[in-house]
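Appendix B, record 7
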Amino acid sequence: MRWLVMILALAAWSAQAAEPVHALAMHGQPKYGPAFTHFDYVNPSAPKGGAVKLAAIGSTFDTFNSYTLKGDAPAGLAMIYDTLTTHAADEAFTEYGLVAESLEVPKDRSWVIFNLRPEARFHDGLPITAEDAAFTLRTLQAKGHPFYRFYYGAVDKAEVLGPRRVKFSFKPGDNRELPLILGQMVVLPKHYWEGRDFEAATLDVPVGSGPFRVKSFEPGRFIVYERVKDYWAKDLPVMKGRFNFDTIQYDYYRDDTVALEALKAGEFDLRLENNSKMWAAGYSTDAVAQGRLIKAELHHQNSAGMQGWVFNTRRDLFKDPKVRQAITLAFDFEWSNTQLFYGQYTRTQSYFSNSELASTGLPSAAELAILEPYRGRIPEEVFTTVYQAPKAEGRYGRRQNLLKALELLEQAGWTVKDRKLVHAQSGVPFAFEILLNSPSFERIALPFARNMERLGMTVSVRTVDTAQYKNRLDSFDFDMMVGVWGQSLSPGNEQVNYWTSSAADAKGGRNVAGIKNPVVDDLVAKLVAAPDRQALITVCRALDRVLLWGHYVVPNWHIAYDRVAYWDKFERPQTIPMQGYQFDTWWLKVSSE
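Structure tokens (predicted):
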């Protein structure tokens, strides 16, 4: 009998055995084989050297620990740490070994083993070990920001199998993304963090392992990173042609308009522009006309995700979807795009906009197979009507939308008395606040508020500093705010934190709308478990429809390119990968070496 047990155990082990691989794709095979020398979108011969200045918008930073809820970390801090794997920007979702030389994953992806490189080192010279990787996972799960507790919530345990061999096992369930998610994890030095309060904010510079280290800083003013000249990974194929500057300095500006003027004065070198008015009218200088300050529109194929005015559905005021739909009708995108955005934007119609993941038309047969079991529990429009954010067409378009909005509000129990919208039973007035963290958004929020005031609502617009905004957002202390959910081309585990009931009340979580919908929970679980690319696309589209018809946000806008302004001191690869421009592949025309 003992031999039979041993044979069965050996058979079970053999079935789960896995050969080491250099990379892992979410679906399909990696683009680059084991013998690749560099990514296609880099210049492997890019010269190293030179100093670069960038701008950070905000009042200050007060911690070098970006992995907890407390404090604000400085811009660029991720450059001081290496991860187990690193992604390729010209693939939807593929991870290649960085700290890990290879990965082992069974067919069911129920666990992953990382075999670490013997040459991997922290900046203090000590090796990066399996103990460090296991310590990182356990620490982030127990003491990290709530985001990490959700992100790694399906990881059951970490086991050290040897000095450079670590295994992460997953809880029961079908989550094919988890091996890649674990690969994206930074590796923190156990010898540094043991004995320190991981949950506290600190300005003690930590021991890192990445291509840059902190050189100098002054909170509220600047931080300077210097390239690690003996960086252990500099010759790896995944690092060839990347991180080419000797120093990168971030100067802090409280106001975005002031930062733009500083760029034009040559105080810093490059700016990723997110303000359409500034892009259209803010760069009228001799430097631009002469080609010394370059404005570039760099097109990409990345998902634009969703940006929108977010309803806090924890508030009684916004619990009724009809109320949320009515307010959506009050936002006049066409006027805003013409008068404020210089016609640069496209109205967002999906939570996965600008990608094949976005729902279009009526549900396909494959989508209906997923959605039909929920009929009666989700809006009937999911099945019958193509979602389209309201348009104010023609001379009287805005007025017609506001009349529709009043009808919906009346159906929801609100009525207008003495030009004020009040609840028909309680007499409570309809009043709320739009919370902002940037004055530049006031020019958009104020006309929106005026439209709502025509419905009898009392709407205030309040802009607060970065620290107060973060605190209020972390504790969901707002009525309406501008939310942004960036989406990759391969969405997965992060969607749990974006939309599900378990994340709705988690302090610091990303479910800022407070969505608690069992159907959404089910669809997210199906998305995470999608066995192949086509299944992922189908579930994404089904989830998209349910979220859209839930009216949790007033959709904003997006563009399919990056707007980058930079002084003519840079060179960059001609190839722009599908995920957009990669500043870490740029270099200076004149090298310091």
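Remarks on this record: Residues 20-47+54-193 form a domain with the D-Maltodextrin-Binding Protein; domain 2 fold (CATH 3.40.190.10). DSSP finds 18 helices and 25 strands in the chain.
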